[in-house]
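Mods, move this if it's the wrong board.
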Amino acid sequence: MAALRILADADVQAVITGAVALDLARKALCGQAEGSVILSSPAAMALDTSELGGPRFKFKAAAVGHLNASGIRLVGRGAHAPRASNYCAIFDHASAGLCGLVPDFWLSRIRTAAFGVAVAERLVSPGPLVIALFGAGAIAREIVPLLALALPVKELRVHSRRAESMQAFASDMSAQTSLAVRAEPMRAKMAPGADLVITLTESKEPLVQPGEMQAGAVVCSMGGHHELDFGVLLESQRLVVDDTDYAAEAGDGGAWISQGHFSLPQFQARVDALACEVVGGKKPGRLHTNDRIVALLQGMAIGDIAFAAHALREAESGHRGTVVELP
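Not the wrong board. Structure tokens:
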């Protein structure tokens, strides 16, 4: 009989601290650079059953060699059930058997935040740093404590559409991390003077404009739509992405291509380094002190699978989750 361990969100949160999340992200990116962490081919598959009255599905798979595990991220989205299914199915390399089912709700937020910080820390100039954060949502709440762990932060500015939530976010994060977090209601005052700009929003209009990024600054675009004006890239010396193909479809890369600024081959040629190459030491992120760097970080399945596999093993040793015997 084979055993399938099924975790709850609380089980995952109990075994992944901020320090653990950063360690998992760094190791996964280094493993990808070395070839021991790989994505499936194709990297993602989609199934849209809306014509049949059903939901939309997305499937992503990856293997994480240093954890001896592979997995499939299973995402289902329906009109009336946006979070109906969001799990990682984990397979053990030794037995090739399905060994666990891990919820990917909170996990996807913490891995997105951790991967962003793991890349940013290899791109920014020495601190203390002024950081501008666009967005006060769920992922933003995860990324601020990780920034406090990984970087010497002098000041953290936050801006979001809703003044009330922005103020509450600044207050909560200041209390939680002891950082100097302040709400900035004026969008145009966010990027000027910042060493690191992070965009974590659903904005479809550019938040960062040409002329706002100081010399040596880094901007990490992590939203799914259009957060950076194309002129920001024109003023930058380096472009780093986590996955070239996906960056050409989603977020700013996809927007720039659809607007006619790039053809797909031109965009691919413009990429200077992959995030894993920078973190793994294969390619430099920064060539010169004054380089402005654009990083497009949409996230990859290697993060979900690495975090889920770790959570599953820690839960097993701590006797967490529900175990189901499989025939």
